[in-house]
Amino acid sequence: MNNDRIDQIIDKHQGEASSLIQVLLEIQSENHWLPKDALRRVGEKLQVPLSRIQHIATFYKAFSLVPKGRHEVHVCMGTACHVRGAERVLDKVQDLTGIKPGETDLDLKFSLETVNCLGCCALGPVMEIDGKTHGKLSRAETEDVLKSYD
Amino acid sequence: MNEILLQIDGKEVRAREGMTVLEAAQSAGISIPTLCYHEKLVPFGGCRLCIVEAEGHGWIRLVVSCVYTVEENLAVRTRSEKVDRIRKTLLELLLAHAPNSPQLQDLAQEYGADKDRFEKEASFCIHCGLCVRYCAEVKKLNAVGFVDRGIKKEISFIPEIASKECHNCMECFPLCPTSWLQAAFVFTEALAFSGPSSGTPSNE
Description:
The structure holds 2 protein chains of 2 kinds. In chain A, 46% of the residues lie in helices and 12% in strands. By secondary structure, chain A is of the alpha+beta class. In chain A, strands 2-1-3-4 form a 4-stranded mixed sheet, with helices on one face. By secondary structure, chain B is of the alpha+beta class. Among the domains of chain B are: 77 residues, Ubiquitin-like (UB roll) (Roll); 63 residues. A 5-stranded mixed sheet of chain B has the order 2-1-5-3-4, sandwiched between helices. In chain B, strand 6 and strand 7 form a beta hairpin. The termini of chain B are far apart. The chains are: A alpha+beta, B alpha+beta. Chains A and B meet through helix 4 of A and helix 4 and strand 6 of B.
């Protein structure tokens, strides 16, 4: 992500220090993670010390300070999904991507996380990719879904 | 400024409006134990050790004196069975993190806190925030900050700033109740920038 794009995002928020979290969220959603240079740039433009930005960026789970893949895979491990075989879905995803929860693959294609409930228990077992919900997954369907992303 | 009259441990105390109970007590020579309080810094209310019993408006409750502002006719008790019990437990919890801190040990002795009551969890930092706040508010350097949250929260030096500023300052070092700050600094120094002679940041 280049500095021009970061400046654009900051200007959209009138360069207000109080918009720090909004600015970080936009960078996060476009870039999938917050590189140190980006944080430094934001700090200079918004006049917020880096220590404070670091505090905020590490406080919220929505932010990542390490590179994330193009697609964020969330496998639900909540009670309903668990009894309907979330473990099988997770195993399949781990097999296919070669990564464990919290990790990102080398091609920066997928990042895998487990979550505790996505709020649609009737669809269990559920996997969410980039905000799109895939429900009632079997092993085969899990594979088809993952393969449909590039 | 309006003057406010309140009672602390049965003693009439005059305080300025907007003063905290802790400041009023200190001005009257009544001591309340603190860990995260510093006269030059904005009150933080982090350690909760300065908790006192306050009575007024028909209620009695426990308030944190470093962030509670004085009120007319408030009756404050800085020691009571309940207050002492809370301080003792707070100290025991803090001692699980930093069992060898002299400041904590002195307080533990006074309140009869057992440093072995809780399983040791050697994080050393007790999150008083003195270093972080002193660097930000007094020195305006922001060389050290908090990262993460909850039980994983810790202090972290920003190497680019620390390598330039810390060797000429180190004013936060004596503030730390546990000496963890010094350790964190040496650790950052060893990892991210070279010793005092060079003074230039390496290619971190």
